[in-house]
Amino acid sequence: xxxxxxxxxxxxTTFGESHGxxxxxxxxxxxxxxxLSAEDLQIDLDRRKPGTSRYTTQRRESDEVQIxxxxxxxxxxxxxxxxxxxxxxxRSQDYGKIKELFRPGHADYTYQQKYGFRDYRGGxxxxxxxxxxxxxxxxxxxKYLKQKHGIEVRxxxxxxxxxxxxxxxxxxxxxxxFFCADPDKIDALDALMRDLKKQGDxxxxxxxxxxxxxxxxxxxxxxxxxxxxxxxALMSINAVKGVEIGDxxxxxxxxxxxxxxxxxxxxxxxNHAGGVLGGISTGQSVVAHIAMKPTSSxxxxxxxxxxxxxSAEVITKGRHDPCVGIRAVxxxxxxxxxxxxxxCLRHRGQNADVQSTTPVIPAQPK
Amino acid sequence: xxxxxxxxxxxxTTFGESHGxxxxxxxxxxxxxxxLSAEDLQIDLDRRKPGTSRYTTQRRESDEVQIxxxxxxxxxxxxxxxxxxxxxxxRSQDYGKIKELFRPGHADYTYQQKYGFRDYRGGxxxxxxxxxxxxxxxxxxxKYLKQKHGIEVRxxxxxxxxxxxxxxxxxxxxxxxFFCADPDKIDALDALMRDLKKQGDxxxxxxxxxxxxxxxxxxxxxxxxxxxxxxxALMSINAVKGVEIGDxxxxxxxxxxxxxxxxxxxxxxxNHAGGVLGGISTGQSVVAHIAMKPTSSxxxxxxxxxxxxxSAEVITKGRHDPCVGIRAVxxxxxxxxxxxxxxCLRHRGQNADVQSTTPVIPAQPK
Amino acid sequence: xxxxxxxxxxxxTTFGESHGxxxxxxxxxxxxxxxLSAEDLQIDLDRRKPGTSRYTTQRRESDEVQIxxxxxxxxxxxxxxxxxxxxxxxRSQDYGKIKELFRPGHADYTYQQKYGFRDYRGGxxxxxxxxxxxxxxxxxxxKYLKQKHGIEVRxxxxxxxxxxxxxxxxxxxxxxxFFCADPDKIDALDALMRDLKKQGDxxxxxxxxxxxxxxxxxxxxxxxxxxxxxxxALMSINAVKGVEIGDxxxxxxxxxxxxxxxxxxxxxxxNHAGGVLGGISTGQSVVAHIAMKPTSSxxxxxxxxxxxxxSAEVITKGRHDPCVGIRAVxxxxxxxxxxxxxxCLRHRGQNADVQSTTPVIPAQPK
Amino acid sequence: xxxxxxxxxxxxTTFGESHGxxxxxxxxxxxxxxxLSAEDLQIDLDRRKPGTSRYTTQRRESDEVQIxxxxxxxxxxxxxxxxxxxxxxxRSQDYGKIKELFRPGHADYTYQQKYGFRDYRGGxxxxxxxxxxxxxxxxxxxKYLKQKHGIEVRxxxxxxxxxxxxxxxxxxxxxxxFFCADPDKIDALDALMRDLKKQGDxxxxxxxxxxxxxxxxxxxxxxxxxxxxxxxALMSINAVKGVEIGDxxxxxxxxxxxxxxxxxxxxxxxNHAGGVLGGISTGQSVVAHIAMKPTSSxxxxxxxxxxxxxSAEVITKGRHDPCVGIRAVxxxxxxxxxxxxxxCLRHRGQNADVQSTTPVIPAQPK
Lengths: 366, 366, 366, 366
Fold this sequence. Notes:
The first copy, chain A, is built from nine helices and 18 strands.
C-alpha cells in the first residue's frame, strides 16, 4: 500500500496540497447507522482553522467541509465517505520567490530529491494544511467512539518553550486560544508568543492526548500493538519528533517497584503505563504525549542551498504559526481517535465471541 | 490485516510463545541473489541471547535458527524465507504458580480480557522471547542494506537509571555486556546492576539507534513517513514507552533558529532533525531513541488481583533481566533495519525512474 | 483494510453513489513526472458514459472529471491524486417507488441485511455508476503503461447472447456503439438489441481484454499471482460472473501436449496460457475474458419480497442498459491496467537489481 | 505487502519449496477458544497427499503437520498459529537433468527472468507442493465456520476431459479416488486415466466448490466483493485458468428474465447468482467452479529452450499427476474456506452493531 492511507479496517485516505484546488479524504469502514452531518465535522475543523487568533497564521480559510457520499438520510450507510474542502485563500505570490530555494528544516529538499521536482507552493503536499482532512476524518471516529462506547478523546497544550502547563481543567482548554488547561498559565504563554513575534522566531511545544473510557482489550500484538499504532499515528503529524505513552521517557530512571501499576479489586492504583499493557488497552485512560519541533518558517535570515546546489540566503515571509503546537491539539485528538476506532473494529472482528469470566478492574478506585 | 505482520513490501510475520514448541517467522519480499546463511542471522541472535552474562536472565537458550526456505545454493531466491528456533529450556514449573494471578505491569490481565483465556507460561505470546525472530529477520535486512547501500545500523545503551552514556566509540559497544559506548561508564553500570540484584528490583533504560549512510528520499508521506514507521516499529518492542527522532522532546524548548539544520553545498551543518524531513530521509544519519520501562518481573512482593478478580499477593520468581534495555539493543537495530529495508523497496517501486538534477548534499562537511 | 481500495503499491480508493452528490477517487502511488490532465481521463470516461447511443441508458451525465491534487504544472508529483465527478441528472423520482422493494437479481436485499438499511436511490453504492471512477483511475495507469513500457491495454465485446464476435480489427472497435471488433457482426448485434427492447428484457455478454507488450516477470507468487489479481480486479466489476485467463474453461478438455505453449529461440509458438505462467507474465500478451450477467433491471414484471418480507410484484422502470456488457469494455480495460500498473511497481520494488543472463523469448516468431 | 499472504483479518502466510527443508505457514487472526489439534488438519492434508492412489504422483510424503504455536491446552489462543511440514521424499536427482531447461507450460522461464535464477528442484516455490499449507490453513477455517456457523465447505470433480460429473451424492465424493460425486461416472474416469498413462499425456479438469449455510451479508463492496476475493483465492491455485460464480459463463447467453433469482417469503426460487449479489452473500449456497489446465509435466517429448536461450528437447520424467484436478479438490475447499472466514471477521468488525428489521429469506422453499 502507498503512504496516504491510515488504518486497517477503519481507513482514512487523504489528498491535497497547500495551494492546490482542494483537499479531500475517503473514510472507509465506518459502521452504518451513525448520525453524521458536515456540522459534526466543522466543529473540530474550526478549532484547527487558521486565522482564528493573532497567535496563528493569518491565512484566511473557512475550511468548509462537504460530505459527498456515504451518508444517506442523515446516517452513515457503511459505504465509503468522501469529503472535500476547496482551498480559497491561496496567495501563491507569497511563495514564488522561494521556488528555487530549499528552506532549512522543511521538506523542500527531500521532496525534490525523492520525486525529481516538487510543488513549491506553500510546501505542496508537505504543508500542515493536509491535516485538515485528518481532523474531518477524526471527527467521524470521535463521534462513533463517544456514541457507542462513551469514549472522550481530548488533548491540550502541555508545554510551550519553558512554560509547562498541567491539566487543571478540561473546560478551560476550549476557552483560550492556546488550548491551555491551566488558566493561570495563559499570560505566560501570551508573553512568550509576543517575544517570538518580535524576534521573528518560533518555538517548540508538547501536546498531551487523553482518551477516557477506552474498554480493556483493544490492540493487536505483536506489531500492531495499540501503543505502536498510536505512535505511528502521532509521529505522522507534521513537526512531531517524539511520542510517549504514559510516563514515556521518565521510565528511564524509574524502578520496577515504582512503575508497575498495582491492580486491586476496586481499581488500578496508578497509570504509569498510560492505559496500555502488552500492546492492549487496560481499561484505564490512554495517555500519550508528543513533542512538536519549532516551525522552520521564520523571518530570521538563514543560509541554505538552491535547486542547483549553490549557496543562498533564505528569509521565509508568508503567514506562519510561531508555534505549530497550538493548532496540533485537534489534530492529535483526531489521530488518536482514528487509531482507537480502527482497533475497536479490529478487536471485535476477531474477538466478538469472547466472554471473559474475569471481572473488569475499574480504571481507578471510587 | 492481523497484528503479527510488519512491513508493506518487505514483510516480517512472526509466531511463537515463551514456552511453546518453537518460535518462527516468514520474511517476504526479500530481493533475490543475496548471500544468506543461518550463520549471518546467528551473530545478532547471539547478541540478544539470554544467559550470556550475569546481568541478564539465566534462562539457557542456544537460540539456534534454521532457515527452512527461500535460500537456494546460498542465495535468497526472492521467495518467502521461513525460519524457526525450537525452544529448549522451558522450565514451565517456574510459572505454574502464577497461573491464577495477574502480575502488575504485565500483559496477563489484558490478554485474559481480550482473548478470554491465556497461555500463562512465561507470558506466552507477550513474552520478549518473541523478539528473537525480529532479530533474525532484522539480520536479513541489515545484510541487504549493508551490501547494497553501505548502510550501517547500530544501537547502544545510552542511559540506565541515572547513568547517562554518550557515544564515545562504536567499537566499545561490542566489548562489554551492556552495549555501553563509553568504557568509562561500565563500572557505574555494573554497580547499579549489583544494587538492583540486591533489592530484587529493576530499572528503566534508554537505547539509541543510528543508521548511517541512508540515502536521501526514503519514506512515504503522509501517513507512512519514514519516522512514523520507525516510531511504529520501535514502539512495538516490548517495554518501550517512548520514541524520539533526532532531538525528540528537546525540541519542546528549542527555537526555530536553533533547530533548523542549515544546508550548505559542503553538507548539512547539524542534524537536529535526526535525518528525516517531511517524513523523508535527508541523506544524514537516521537517529532514534527509545525509552524502556523497568521490567515488572521483580522479587519485591506486590499487591494484585487473581483471575477471579480477588485481591492477592504476587512475587515474581523465575529468571529475569533487571534491565531489559540491555538486550533491547539488537532488537532496536533489527526493527530499524526492517523499517529502512521496507522503505527502500517501497521507494524504488514508485520512484525507480526519478532522476533529480539537484546535487546531493553531503551528510556533513568534510 | 476496508473494501473500497484496490492495489498494494499503486492503489485506487473510490467513493460515491448513483444519486449522491458526487463520485470520486484517490489514486495513490503513481510515479512522479507523468504528464497528466483531465482530458487524458475524459477520453475513456466518454467511452463509458451513459446516453451515448440508443443501446445504453438514456441517463444524461457529462461525467466531467476534475483533478483536485497530485498534478502540478501538468505533471504528476508522486503524491496522491484526488479526482471528482459531480452527479447531474439524478431523477430520484424514478426510484422512489421501489424504496420498499427488493429487486430480484439486485443488491437491494443484501445491502439491507448487511447494513441494516440502504440508499435505495438507483442502487446507491451498488450501482454501476461507481465504475466511472475506476475508468478515470485506469486511464492514469493506461497512460503510464503506454508511455513507459509501450503497453497497449484494449478490450472488445466478444459475445452478446448467441452472437459471437472474433477479434478481426482493433480499429473497428472504436467505430461502433458495441465495441464490436468485427464489422460484419454489427447488424446481428443491432437486431438482438431491438428484440430485447421490444421484450423489455436484457441479455448477458462476454468481454475480452488484451494487454500487449507486457514484459516478462510481473506477478507475485503465490497468492498475488498476476492472474489471481486480474481475476480479483475483473470479478469486482458489477455483473461479472466469470473470469478466464487464456484458454480458460477450454482447458478442461485439453491435453497437456496441446495446451503447453512451446518456446523456441524465435518466440513462443502459441499462447494458450494467456501470457501468465506460475502467476508471472511470460512476455506474451496477457489475455482475459469475462462473463457479464444480463442486467436484472428489466420491465418484465417479476415476483419479489418487500422490506417487511412480504410478497410483492416489481417492474423496474427507469433508464437501463439492455446489455451491460457494452459499457463494461472500458471498465475491463481500466481494471486490467490498474492491476498491471500495481504489479509493475511491486515487481521493481523487489527486483530492481535483477539482471537475468537468459535472453528474452519474443512473444511470437517474426 | 508481498505476495505470500492471503486475507485481511484472517491471514495466511506461507513458505516452502518442493524440495526444500520444509513447508510452513502462519495463520493469523484466528479467534481464540477454538478446539484445534494437528489431527484436525491432517484429515484434509491426507486427502491432498500424494501417493494415495495410482491416479496421482507416486512421490511418498506423509505430510505430517506440526502446530508450533497459537494453541494452548487444546484451544486457539487468538495469537498467530505457526505450522510446519518437513519434506521427506525429495529425490532431487529426478530434477537435476532439467536444471538447464525451461519446461514448456511451467514457471521455470518466468521465475528465471523475474528473479535472475531459480530453485530448479521440482519447480521450487512454483510447485503445487506449496498448496499443502493452504490445506492446513483451510482446515482451521473450515473447523471455525462449521462450529460457529454450521457452514459446510465441500468440493468435487465436476468434469475431467469430456467426462462430465453431476453432483449426485456428497457422500460418494469421499468414497473414490477421483472425488467423483456420481458413482456411475467412476469407470469412465478410470478408463480416461488409463489412456492418458499409456499416452504419457495429461488432461484438464473442472472442480466445483459449494459452501452451504453461509449467512446473508458477508462481502465488502466494491473491490473486496466476496465473489472477487473468491476469484482471487481460487485463481491463485496452481494450474487454475478460470473461475465462475454461479452460472458463470452460461450467463453470456441468458436473458435477465431467466437469470434473476426470484425471492419469495418462503425462499429464493433459484440460485443462478451462486449465492452472491452486489458482492455480498445472499444466504444461499455460495457456488464456484474452476478450470484446471492439464499439467505440462508429461512424457511426450517437446521442443523448448534452455537457460542460454538455445533450442532444446525436453521430456519430463519424475512423478506427476496425469490430472492435477483430482488433488485440487481439497485445495479449492481450503481457499474457499479461508476467504469466507476472512469475510466473516471483516463483516462483524464493521457491522457487529447492525440489526436488520427485514426477515431473512430462506435459501430455498421448504
